[in-house]
Amino acid sequence: MTPNRGGKGAGVVLGAAAVATGLVAGVFFAYVCSVMPALARSDDRVFVEVMRNINDVIQNPVFFAAFFGAPILAGVAAWQHRTTRAGAWTLLGFVLCAAVFVVTTAANVPLNDALATTKDPTAARSAFEDTWVAWNTARTILSAAALASLLMAISARKTTRRENT
Question: Could you give the CA distance from residue 30 to residue 22 in angstroms, rounded to a whole number?
Answer without folding.
Answer: 12
